[in-house]
Amino acid sequence: MIMTDHAHIDEHRDDEGAKTGMWIFIFTELLLFGGLFIVYSIYRYLNPMAFHLAAEELDIFIGTANTVILLVSSMTIAMAVTSIQLKNKRLTLILMGITVCLALAFMVNKYFEWSGKISHGIFPGSEILHQSSQGEILFFGLYYAMTGLHALHIIIGVAFIAYVMWLVKTEDVKHDDYVILENSALYWHLVDLIWIFLFPLFYLIT
Amino acid sequence: MENAQHTHIVKYKTFVVVLLLLLVFTFSSVAITQYDLGVYSVTAALIFACLKSILVLMYFMHLKFDKKFYTIMMAGIVLLIVSVITITFLDYLYR
Q1: Which CATH fold would you assign to the domain A18-204?
Q2: ipTM for the assembly
């Protein structure tokens, strides 16, 4: 009994270290996507016409809608950090819940977008793409790889935020101990940050 | 003392203002790329994307309110990515 009390008092906690670790992880993610952006820009430079034609195929409306969804969800998770600091557990859970719902809405949009493309026969290795130019094959290959990798990050982010919601519910995360909520928010902002560049590169620049 | 850096609480209103700015930049970049401005549409779209990411980094990711250490590291990573892109393009442009 005395032992466990003692262990509790001496509980090691390093919020600054936890946050620095999260930032370093974010840097590795930025370098990963940075590398993909370089591949994209070089192939675009080498195949300007094919990339122009292929980019016209993408739906700007869906792209813009998903941008708005992600920006709003970024705001709600940022607000969740403020509300846990203000000791408002209920509002924190609501804001995190909204973030998760918006993330799922993003994925639903992505599903319709991808299935639309696939039903038109545009997917890696399809007959139609085989008859297209090298540049168009590259564009759609990069489109599926980069938006797919980004979507994977969305799924991981949803799982991470849902886990932290559970911790908030059980009071393992509270107003004086919330670094994991901050870190999940940072991860979610990273997902938003990547999309801020994916969106103009694939949908807007034609 | 240990939690000194955690005491800064960002107001909800700040986040709403930042979101509105982000939305304005998003719609501006959509609008400007509808015109065929050649290389300028690419430049404009990327400038808006950079402005948006600065807002997200400074306010949503708390860089403005955290220790300067994080901002310096972030700037280092941006510099690294930009220089790699520049060097790669110099290679393709002048080979």
Answers
A1: Four Helix Bundle (Hemerythrin (Met), subunit A) (1.20.120)
A2: 0.91
